[in-house]
Amino acid sequence: MRNYSKLLPASKMKLVISSIGVLALLVFSGFVLFEATKAEVVFAENGKEQTVSTHTNTVEDLLDELGITIGQHDELSHEMDTPIEHGMSVEFEAAKEINVSIDGVEETYYTTTETVGAFLADENLSFKEQDIISHNAKDSTKDGLHIEVLTAYEVAINDGGKVKKIWTTDGTVEDLLNKAEVKYDQNSEDKVEPALDEVITKGDKVSIVRVSEEEEVLIEPLAYKTEKREDGSLLKGNEKVISEGKEGTVKKVYKVIKENGKEAERELVNEEVTESVAQIVAIGTKEKKQESNLVTAASNQSNAQATSASNSGGKTLTMTASAFTAGCSGCSGMTATGINLKANPNKKVIAVDPNVIPLGTRVWVEGYGEAVAGDTGGNIKGNRIDIHVPNKSEAFSWGIKTVQVKVLD
Predict the structure, then answer these.
(1) In what order do the strands lie in the sheet with 96-102?
(2) Rounded average pLDDT over 263-272
């Protein structure tokens, strides 16, 4: 190493050292002065504060110095051209990107709010309590946050004619029925539309048709026939009931399908027939000229009455005669003239057309005897009478006859 001290005189060496010291002092003094003239600024970035010493003139210059770029949605407490002052505070909040999907439709938002609730309120996004939101209102926001919303809608459930409405967001028909606490049996005949595994969408309606099966028994009457048989022992024109007819029945068993309580289908599953019994009626064929001269005591009595009636001088009428009894079901037994036939079952009374035989008239009827015209009848018109007998058997035996009627008074 070369020793320069030997090259320079001692006086010049001192001068060089002195010059270097002065230069160093000037540099140091300048640095101290430069630092002393800086402005101190409190800068808060996303809530974190730091004190910055700067010679920048504006907020924009300060941000450039700190390497911060302001985005479109970021928040800055001052305008970019605001002059820097010693002791000022500058706040910067970087916006967070939030993606919101509502029923599958996604939209991007930017916010500087701290919570999900504040973000939704800031963007005027409001939802019903039935809607489903993926985050709570108190959850913190962060860049890239994805919020999913399913909006609820009402679905009407027609359950056998009774309508119930339920809020839902998604799921199948089966999910909806369970949520609505609607009971159903998958093994029953009930009809659910749409099908249980169908996915519910907005505007859908669900219908449950309640199906029931019942057995119904109907008994229908089967009318009896009337068989007529010729009888040579009866005078021609006379009829006599030999045996009563009896109605039969048809018992039908149906399977009845009802939907929501109303009949929808009917099927005959069984039929039982009880045959009717025919009524046998004897038809007289005997001619009057063939009658025997031998008559019964009753006939003699009738002839005697006829002779007596004939001698009285009243008019004689040829009339059609049927028979009735007061012992029928629903009959009062009282005649039009006030005779109680139930109390007097053997009373000789005939029903007449008052225009032909006045009520109260005494008459003689061939084969019946002396009687009083004491009643009327809806079917008793013109030359038609109805004779009273004690019981149904005698009424059937009498049948319908053509007789001579003698007016006695």
Answers:
(1) 105-111, 96-102, 145-150, 132-133
(2) 92
